[in-house]
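note to self: dont lose this again. the chain is below, predicted strucutre after it. 123 aa total, dont forget to put it in the shared folder this time
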Amino acid sequence: ELENMYVSFRQEIDTYAAELIVNNLETRPVIYEGKTVGFLILDDDYLDSFYIMPEYRRKGIGREFIKSEYRKDMCRWHELAVVKTNYAALAFWKSVFNLRRISSNFCDLHYEILGLKGLDYDT
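---
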């Protein structure tokens, strides 16, 4: 019961915060076949949020978008955090980046981004 209440609380708080986050942090849409299918949010050199709509996941869209944007930004992103129990997100980020865990708390794992995995930076 408390878990459900917490989920409701987070949804309510996130509703209030969404406009502030999207309008005050660097937000980039993920466009696929002319449709916005997700977004990337950056806070300076910190990768704050990344989302792809469920029906567009596991098609390589997110991976190619992240690689392209990371190269465009001349590899300026240095950190990201992942919720410990979000195993799909953790597997995704580990497949895209070389990561070094720098800290954790009860909920999140924090990583330093060392570079793209298996990529020639001159291409």
